[in-house]
Design a protein that fits this description.
The chain has 373 residues and is α/β, with parallel strands linked by helices. It is built from 13 helices and nine strands.
């Protein structure tokens, strides 16, 4: 049994990459008829994609800074101190509607062949006073990359990236040029806290401090909602919000709070941030199970309730909701996408592959294009 007590021990996760990939591909091949989940194809490509997921998990396990157990216990105690307040406020009480952002700078830039505007902006205070000290980005600017024709009556799409993204190459990862040129959308790619140029030393999101995770999710939501206020000044014909992986639940939260959002899609979404972390910690021996239990504890669950996208329904009509689910998702799990689809209704696209592999799927690209057309 692997124990996360040392980095060398965590490296033992690499030995299980291929066996886990083969086993998970076989399980996905059976499907879940009782839950409406179709079987996935089984073959070298599916096993290879599953191995990519497992390798990604192993890499992150090795490089992730795991604090001592007593530090994480202290983090959970901080959650306990504000749990009653967060529960009483609820989602709508925590997520206050922001004003339009204050634009600090707008610069024309180019990445490869794609021209875009880099917009940096400030949002008003939005956190309960009890957790302002837990926001490492207090008073700092938010950022977004924007492709726009600058006219009124345009269709807009906001695409929220996943963990370890937020760089200029998001323009290619999320096909910003295609969305803008071929589908005729204006495009906004916000940069989440602790990602891309917004990274701060010793701030991880998602990380091992549950309260900071929740605070940064609240910040991400309010930054995107402020961006929507800025877009609304241009009298858009439509605003669609999309999110991939970590960005999925953030996009879903915005879609539940913003009446201006008329369409929403979530691609291989993560739902329960701390439950997902705990699921991967369970693999890592006795210390991993102790850490997982803390991530699943009542105080963490209570504060996380205000970032639960399953607590409310999106404002968009069911026919304007799409979930893309990877049948062999080893990173955020198929069950997350299945639960979101069950809650949303609307459309679902079942991809016969993995979380990492979804980025290479022409089928997903076609399904997204059909939804947005």
């Amino acid at each position: 049994m692997i124990d996360w007590g040392t980095g060398v021990a965590r490296a033992g996760l690499f030995a299980s990459v291929l066996p886990r990939a083969i086993a998970s591909a076989r399980i996905a091949g059976r499907g879940r008829p009782d839950a409406g989940v179709p079987p996935s194809a089984v073959g070298p490509r599916v096993v290879g994609e599953s191995a990519l997921d497992e390798f990604f998990i192993a890499i992150n396990s090795v490089i992730r800074d795991i604090p001592p157990l007593e530090v994480i216990e202290g983090n959970v105690a901080r959650c306990d101190a504000v749990a009653a307040e967060f529960t009483a406020l609820g989602i709508e009480g925590i997520h206050q509607r922001p004003n339009a952002p204050r634009i600090v700078s707008q610069k024309r830039k180019m990445f490869g062949t794609t021209r875009f505007d880099q917009i940096d902006y400030l949002v008003d205070g939005f956190l309960p006073q009890s957790v302002v000290v837990d926001d490492p980005y207090a008073g700092m600017t938010a950022s977004a990359r924007v492709l726009s024709r600058s006219g009124k009556g345009r269709r807009w799409i906001i695409w929220v990236h996943g963990a370890a993204q937020g760089r200029n190459d998001d323009l290619y990862a999320f096909r910003a040029g295609h969305l803008h040129g071929a589908l005729d959308y204006d495009v906004a790619l916000p940069v989440l806290p602790a990602h891309g140029a917004r990274r701060l030393r010793k701030v991880a999101y998602p990380g091992m401090d549950p309260l900071v995770n929740v605070v940064l999710t609240i910040r991400a939501v309010v930054e995107i909602r402020a961006l929507i206020r800025w877009i609304a000044r241009r009298e858009p014909a439509e605003i669609v919000i999309a999110g991939t992986s970590l960005g999925g639940p953030i996009a879903a939260l915005v879609a539940t709070l913003e009446p201006d959002v008329s369409g929403t899609l979530a691609v291989v979404p993560m739902l329960d941030l701390h439950g997902t972390l705990a699921h991967h910690m369970d693999r890592a021996g006795s210390r991993g199970r102790e850490l997982a239990a803390l991530m699943r504890s009542d105080p963490v669950t209570a504060v996380s309730s205000v970032i639960d996208p399953l607590a409310l329904d999106p404002m968009a009509s069911p026919d304007r909701r799409l979930v893309v689910a990877a049948l062999n998702d080893r990173v955020t799990s198929l069950s997350a996408a299945r639960k979101l689809h069950a809650h949303w209704g609307g459309q679902v696209y079942w991809y016969a592959g993995s979380h990492v592999g979804h980025a290479m799927s022409r089928g997903i690209q076609d399904a997204v294009d059909d939804f947005l057309a």
